[in-house]
Amino acid sequence: MDISKYDSKTRELYQKVMDAKELHIGDYYAGCRAFLKNAIALDDPKLLGIAYYWMSNACYISNKYYDKFMGYLQKALPYLQGAGDYENLARAYNLLGIDALNHGDPQICLDYFMNALNFPTNDEDAKQILPMIHFNMGQAYAQFGDYKECLKHVTKAIRTLPRKKDPYLLYMRASCLVAQGFAYLNLGRVNPAVTCLDALLKIEDYSETVKKEMDEPYTQYFKAVVYHKTQQPQLRDQFIDRFVSVMENGNFSFDVIYDAFRFTDFLIDLSKYDLAARSINAARNIVETSKVSYAQAAYARLQVHYYTRIRDDENLIVVLQEFYNSSERHRIEAAKSYVASMNLRNTLEEMRKDNERLAYAAATDSLTDLPNRSAMNSYLESIFEECYRKQISLGVELLDIDYFKEYNDTYGHQAGDELLVKLAEILRDVAMDPDVFVARYGGDEFVLTYRGMTDEQVMEKADRIRTRVKDMAIPNKNSRGEKTVTVSQGIRNAVPVMSNRLWDFFYTADNALYSVKRSEKGQIALMHKAYISNDSLEDVMRV
Question: pLDDT (tens digit, 9 = 90+) per residue, 155-201?
């Protein structure tokens, strides 16, 4: 969304949120709260969608406010949907997918990720979203044990990341390299994993900011495993010690708790029981605070692994009971979560359909069901730019019904409306060609455009319209010309040049239509030049 149109206070608050999110300057949660408070005061739906989304994101990555994240996200979605803010809708669905993954709901999480990928994201900033979604899909497949599919998505994330050296994009690239390296390790391919580690270390050497951000269990685990696989125990133990230190300092979010569990399993397998016990104890508070039954079950399973290996049967019996209880809670919560997810999906689908209906109504002429003038203006700007860029011809035709006022006065306005509908049906048939567009301009006037067509092709289609109208033989007894309904058509067909504007094409088509109206109604005139002169009049093609 373009934030530049808002007042200076709003722009400043938004920038603080972005700086805190990407560069960790200031308090991210406090910045999001201030931005949301401002959006509520302005009562701007587009701004509210963004503000509620970033508030949910701040809560998600905060252990303290995690339980509030879903409430804010559910408030954000209707605003984002209503505003057509596809960039942040994709972010929101991506966040829903991550949360479903953390709750152990694989089917739901992949469904959210697939929905996130389906939103159109053409803006430069939005290009960062697609790699992020593919990265998270890779993480999901890794959790399911499908490392080939994981590798496919993570590799796609790396390939689609913009090649810029700002800290946030470098951090994303570094995270993808870790995920890619893990996938290779689980597929038994150590050498490519070493290549991923080398690339990661180069990024960390280049950016101190990225190195600081990557100081988390996920990265430490990857480095330790690679050094273990390559017979470098000193380097391995260096990152094991760093991992335990980070755990005990509590310097990590709930988002990485499962990586911490996997790292602790690795320590148990290495028989480093004292370090594993310290990691398990450090994780207890964040697991209990989260109230996520899936995390509690995973934590209990980790303890089962630990007490089994150290042969502590007394504590093993206790944690087995905890594992059963938390697994049962997860089973019940998973069913509720599935129902809630389906309800949310149905609500959003209904909203999407409502928005599509509203958008269609806003862009459609209610009488003829053709695109209206507003839709035409939007389309013509894009088609003009395309024809100029590709240096192909653009044809613009203005068409109106001859002596339409007399027809209305004679047969009544209802008959006039019926005539417009019949003409619209003829125009719609011609517009079945993907290179032809038609819209109602207003009253009895219509506009057609022809993309990349020769004069002869344009005239053939225009003459087909003229002939079909004439063949209907609809009486117009008070016409001052022919006594049946006819149409007059003025066209400009030319390749746009730098000095052209879209208005030039309309002006010329209007001049061509005027020349038909002045000389002999019911005919077609095609011109190439913008201004009428003796030379341009001699160049007119007529039917």
Answer: 999 998 888 888 888 999 999 999 999 999 999 999 999 999 999 99
407 and 525 share a domain?
yes
Range of the domain at 257: 230-329
Instruction: Say whether both 458 and 315 belong to one domain.
Output: no
Q: What is the pLDDT of residues 452-463, one digit of tens each?
A: 999 999 999 999
- What total number of domains does the chain contain? 4
CATH number of 167's domain: 1.25.40.10
Per-residue pLDDT at 151: 96
Task: Report the DSSP beta bridge partners of residue 395.
Answer: 450, 493
Is residue 267 located within the same domain as residue 171? no
User: Do the Cβ atoms of 172 and 164 come closer than 8 Å?
Assistant: no
Same domain, 103 and 150: yes
Answer whether residue 406 is part of any domain. Answer: yes
Sign of CA dihedral 144, 145, 149, 151: positive
Handedness of CA 406, 412, 417, 419 (dihedral sign): negative
Note the pLDDT of residue 534: 40
Same domain, 377 and 525: yes
CATH code for position 484: 3.30.70.270
Residue 110 CB partners (closer than 8 Å, separation 6+): 97, 137, 140
Rounded CA-CA distance 516/495 in Å is 23
What strands lie across the sheet with 394-401, from one edge to the other? Answer: 436-442, 445-451, 394-401, 487-494, 524-527, 541-542
Q: Are strands 487-494 and 394-401 parallel, antiparallel or unpaired?
A: antiparallel
- Single-letter code of the amino acid located at 479: S
Indicate the range of 155-169, 265-279, 484-498, 518-532 predicted with least confidence. 518-532
Pairing of strands 436-442, 394-401: unpaired
Q: Among 33, 68, 103, where does a domain finish?
A: 68
Cα angle value 489/495/498 (rounded, 5°): 120
- CA 81, 82, 83, 84 torsion-angle sign: positive
Residue 343 has pLDDT above 90, yes or no: no
Q: What angle do CA 240, 245, 249 make, to 5 degrees?
A: 150
How far is residue 449's CA from residue 492's CA, in Å, rounded to a whole number? 10
DSSP string covering 79-134 = HHHHHT-HHHHHHHHHHHHHHHHHTT-HHHHHHHHHHHHHS---STGGGGHHHHHH
pLDDT at 537 over 50: no
Q: Is the pLDDT of residue 530 over 60?
A: no
pLDDT tens digits, residue range 204-225? 999 988 888 888 888 999 999 9
Nearest Cα neighbor of 33 from 11, 58, 66, 4 is: 58
Residue 410 lies in a domain: yes
Q: What percent of the chain has a predicted confidence (pLDDT) above 90?
A: 58
C-alpha distances out from residue 367 to 309, 364, 421, 422, Å: 77, 9, 7, 11
Predicted local confidence at residue 535, as pLDDT: 41
